[in-house]
Amino acid sequence: MSTDRHHRYDAVPPIPTYEEAVADAPPHETESHSLLTSHNGAPSSSRRPNGYRAPTVETDDEDGLFESDDDDGDETAYVRREMQELEIGEPDRGSRTSLWGKRIPFSLSLPRWKWSWRWRLPRFRPTIVLPSGPTTSPSTTEGDESGTENRSRWRFSWPRFQGASRKQVILLLARIFAVFVVLSFLYLIFVSDVFSRMARRLGTGFRFDPEDVRSWVQGHVDPAGMATTVKHFTSYAHLAGTEGDYALALDIEHMMTRAGLDTVDVDKYHVYLNYPKKDGRAVQILDKDGKPSWTAKLEEEERGEQIVGRQTYAFHGHSKAGDVKGPLIYANYGSRMDFQQLQDRGVKTEGAIALVRHYGPQSDPALKVRAAELAGFAGCLIYSDPADEGADLDDVAPDGRYMPKDGVQRNSVSLTNWVIGDVLTPGWESKDGLPRMNVDQTPGLNQIPSLPLSWGDAQVLLKRLKGHGKKVPDAWKGGVPGVEWWTGDASSPVVRLKNEQHEVEKQPIWNVYGKIEGVEQMEKSVIIGNHRDAWGFGATDPHSGTAVMLEVARILGSLTTKGWRPLRSIEFMSWDGGAYNLVGSTEFVEANVDNLRTNAFAYVNLAGAVAGTELHAAGSPVFRQTLHRIMDRVNDPVRNATLRHLWEARHGELEALGMAGDYVPFRDIAGTSSIDLGFRGPRYPYHSNYDTYDWVKNVGDPSFIYHGVLAEVVALLVLELADRPILPFDLAGYADSLDGWVEDLVAWAKGKIKTGADAGEEKYALDQLKIAVHAIKSAAKTFSAWEHAWDSMIVSSGGWESGGLNNQRLEYNERMALFDTALLDLEKDGGIPNRTQFKHVVFGPQQWSGYNATFFPAIRDAIEEGDWDLASKITLKTAGLLRDAARVLVPSADA
Length: 895
Description:
CATH topology of the largest domain: Aminopeptidase
Number of domains: 4
Strand content: 5-15%
Shape: globular
Distance between the termini: 57 Å
Helix content: 25-40%
CATH superfamily of the largest domain: Zn peptidases
Structural class: alpha/beta
Radius of gyration: 41 Å
Largest sheet: 12 strands, mixed
Number of helices: 28
């Protein structure tokens, strides 16, 4: 910033004293003499030495300040002295071309102005009006009592100027006007943000030192502010599409606007949702007369301190309505293998009610219900077993981490592996005027009713199974106390499952978007997303992620007010309906899919972001090196070590993405490289009404320490992705991962192929995948070499990048980002067969993979079904797309 001592102005001559003024005039007074003329234009003939005249007292009869006889020399001298003082800064009038005496320096910061002239207003003397009689000089009134009385009567009138005095006033007014114009111009430039807008349009901007930006961002994370956000967002229940959900959408819109984001928008969709009725759900044991002998509690104790409404009822999102009854049968985790084992042991399952527990090899609740449906069950109950939630029954919420006896885990049971988003509009957005399926047409819904239970309610049901069916194997035994584990059979107690609900086929939901525009490629975006709706109060899931996202928006928004801008745009997105079936994010992607495939460089997901103290990351391999750099500079304040040190101590790895987050539509439909970040730990009261602000404050993350640490990680990751001149994608690492995934696929396929003459990887053309991956590895190595060449050219030119080199760099970034997009099967009816929403040939769900990550899902499904021709066809298409992706990096890549 400029300071006074940096300005180089000429020294200001001293103001002359009265004695100096009446002495021989110095050189700079010569010009002033020519200005002292009489009213008729001739030089005044009567002057004291050096032209000084004594001041006079004017009367009403005087026409002007300078219209006096020779006796008024003192007054003329006074005027001359004033002119001399005003002309000090302009000694050379003949060469002056502007009213400004000096050039005003300009910089990004306003300097402290130092003027080369003195600011001084003319001294206007009042007119003295005598009541009558002749004009009186000062000498005639001195000592005269009546004269003294007359002088006490004053009347002020506007002064009249002519000659030199008029020029002085004009000069002063001109200077004041010039100062006003300059200050107005500076206000326009700096306060109205003209520069930053211009920079955004021109693709250039003022670059800040990247290290200073990183340090500033890390130093401005506010855990207390995030605690306030979580407390507010958990103050009432907010299922998708409800009044509470809409209120939070408006809150996020306001917070993004207040953060200083360039644009903030609310986007509405109309989707299929269901809601529980107060008395519409029941689980009962019926006696021989069909009367209920026991009724499950179903609901939890009131846990929240909500300001409106009540906590959410226990139910399943997207469940089937119905009122069914049948014998109770326990089926372990409810996987297809578990139901097959029941049948192998002779347990009849048709028309029964299944009781299964959460988690296990088939972790997706929707697939548990689906497997029960295919096994002939009439309904399905899913409970939280202490063996899976945490074996220590004393360390339970609200004072501990684990699910208490009455805790109920809510979930969506729509078939995410078949259809994501609105189940009535698979493949297109849910907007007015577009077609919609009927509820009974969609493949995304199960066809038997289901409900969640606490282990307290399940305990009663499990005890009633004693002596019915078969004793279960040890692997099936849970942690519910006081239970002798039996499977049950047709002789088991009859259980009624009632699920009456409100079903809305076109329920409004609201996404909220905020954006910081980039200065170099404003159309290219790095997106941070988190769903807002919750099954309960949602302090951990989703609002630890909401708090982190909004904190990053606040920090980066504040940074823009200081003049910083990223090279690429940064977008913050609050999804609605994420808890149901990733509805809000999927509808957005389907509505903007072409733009996202071209311009979305990366997607960062934050749901259930802080549930423990170990940093975990799952995502595309392109993020691996960048994540390591970030972990090197972020410390864990509790363990007093860098996150990288702790990561390596536990042998942490960048994990593969499954199907449990809003990254799914970005990765599988738009081909956007995606990553999911969060601190994980032991289980917590997941999706229950025990997941409250007080639980997070007292148990989950006291002082919100790890909220703050994750905010640092996310902010630094966003800066890396949005503000590095070259997009920091590790394509060589991606190629190595592809090589490993193909080897795993080959090994898995060999285990599925029956021994024989034709056994081997050639049966499914898997060797073609190996050849294609080899081409990608070679192309990635060649492609990455350009970055080193660019570095050398920038260093050798002293940091200057030519226009041609700039264009090459931007193209280089685009080709990096398009690599994942090139792995989409965009042919007509392309994608995974019968599940064509999923376009990515490497990532995506198998039919029964649930939340788990899988690679080459279409090939695996075809092999599992024994369709050899289809498996070969899909493999050859996949190999072709891999070769095309290599050509995106290097057009001449060997196919």
